[in-house]
UniProtKB/TrEMBL annotation:
Gene3D superfamilies: NAD(P)-binding Rossmann-like Domain (3.40.50.720). Coiled coil: none annotated. This is 3-oxoacyl-[acyl-carrier protein] reductase. It comes from Allocatelliglobosispora scoriae. InterPro entries: KR_dom, NAD(P)-bd_dom_sf, Sc_DH/Rdtase_CS, SDR_fam. It comes from the Bacteria. Its EC number is 1.1.1.100. GO terms for molecular function: 3-oxoacyl-[acyl-carrier-protein] reductase (NADPH) activity. Keywords: Oxidoreductase.
Length: 439
């Protein structure tokens, strides 16, 4: 569904009215297109941290000198070595001269240390500083405007440029257009030499339409053979998507008895393994708790939460996910902030977040990463059916003043799935344009 307000706000007459009345001003976002540069404009890497020099050397866009007023495509502040409150002044000294020089759809990335629990009453200051970086970054994301985004990347002490490079490139690129105000942790890992997903087998549930179809297309674009799964009722649409991405279709109701075992048998016999598992299938049965039926509760928890947990457990037990594998869940902002009339849905999506955080350390030794995306307001057929006032509120109440697109969720999942993201696990990244409430 088209965003008529955004189209009007970008017109000549609309720009003047929006400015005069102080209305939301949705910028045109820079999204990835095949053949496009990683980022438009130079990248400034500054700061006293341990990664700045090595990172500047590998960025294909190059760097610029610290010159006040220079037009920048991105500003990267390496604060990994800051451990004292007084040293936070460095954020101001770097950010202040360039606060107004970022190009439209520019990027700000702050690198920080992973906060550690204080071992005595004297070593808590580093943890204080690590958390302060989060407040600074989120505020920048809401302040700079014109489609710019800001992120905090926490880098483990034993991780270096090799581990963080994939994340930096994703955040600099148009692929992260609707990701802002996020905190991402990167740990030490053995990063492979593969540049894409060529030769990989990817499973995408709920692939017949909307976000699931976008995920299937994006993973196929990056080289994967995609097994597209959806319920039998969506068989025709599923076949269209599978044919489009030159993958394969598999019809299965994940809420049915024995579904996980049947899926394991199918993947084992057809492919022998599955390198990327994307749990996208989800349903809503919205009612206030007092009016909700037991069936509405059970259906949502079954599809949205129990199925991902059981399917992953079965795939791991059958040893179908190899080292280097990726497990990716789709949560929701509703699982973080809650939502009226969605106690079942919010519980299921919050459960996905808890599952990711619990499973990640357990699978780290096997070289398997586990992450989740948490979409906010995404323009889909479902959101198009919302009442107009609710839909407009969802679109405008974020730092980018617009809804996201299915491709925004798909690109974030493709980054999680990429070989270079081996050090990214246990993360929940909100694809919400930095919602102003609950995020």
């Amino acid at each position: 569904m088209s965003d008529r307000y955004a189209s009007f706000a970008r017109s000549g007459a609309g720009k003047a009215l929006v400015k005069r009345l102080g209305l939301p001003d949705p910028p045109k976002l820079r999204r990835y297109r095949e053949g496009s540069a990683l980022i438009e404009g130079p990248v400034l890497v500054a700061g006293s941290g341990r990664l700045a020099e090595g990172l500047a050397a590998v960025l294909p866009t190059g760097t610029v000198e610290v010159v006040a007023g220079a037009r920048l495509g991105a500003l990267i502040i390496d604060a990994t070595s800051i451990v004292k409150i007084a040293d936070l002044r460095e954020l101001y000294e770097i950010g202040h001269p360039h606060a107004r020089s970022l190009m439209p759809s520019g990027r700000v990335i702050v690198l920080g240390a992973v906060p550690l629990a204080a071992q005595s009453g004297e070593d808590y200051e580093a943890a204080v500083v690590a958390q302060a970086l989060e407040g600074f970054t989120r505020s920048v994301g809401k302040e700079f405007g014109r489609g710019s985004t800001a992120q905090l990347v926490r880098v483990a002490a034993d991780a270096g440029v090799d581990e963080v490079r994939s994340t930096i490139e994703f955040l600099l690129s148009g692929k992260s257009a609707y990701v802002s105000g996020q905190v991402i942790t990167v740990g030490a890992a053995e990063v492979g030499t593969d540049s894409d997903l060529s030769g990989k087998i990817a499973l995408v549930t709920g692939a017949a339409r909307g976000i699931g179809a976008a995920i299937a297309r994006t993973l196929a674009r990056d080289g994967a053979h995609v097994v597209c799964l959806d319920v039998p009722a969506a068989g025709d649409a599923l076949a269209v998507v599978a044919n489009e991405v030159r993958g394969s279709a598999y019809q299965l109701d994940l809420n049915s008895e024995g579904a996980a075992s049947r899926l394991v048998d199918h993947l084992k016999s057809r492919h022998g393994r599955v390198d990327v598992v994307v749990h996208n299938a989800g349903i809503t049965r919205d009612k206030t708790l007092g009016k909700m039926s037991p069936e509405q509760w059970d259906q949502v928890l079954g599809v949205n939460l129990a199925a991902p947990v059981e399917v992953t457990r079965a795939l791991l037990a059958a040893e179908l996910i190899p080292s280097g594998g990726r497990v990716i869940g789709v949560a929701s902002i509703a699982g973080i902030a809650g939502n009226r009339g969605q106690t079942n849905y919010a519980a299921s999506k919050a459960g996905i977040i808890g599952w990711v955080r619990a499973l990640a350390p357990a699978l780290a030794a096997q070289g398997i990463t586990v992450n989740a995306v948490a979409p906010g307001f995404i323009e889909t057929a479902m959101t198009a059916k919302m009442p107009m006032v609710t839909r407009e509120a969802g679109r405008r109440m974020n730092s980018l003043a617009q809804g996201g697109l299915p491709i925004d969720v798909a690109e974030t999942i493709a980054w999680f799935a990429a070989p270079g993201a081996a050090g990214v696990t246990g993360n929940v990244v909100r694809v919400c344009g930095q919602m102003l409430l609950g995020a």
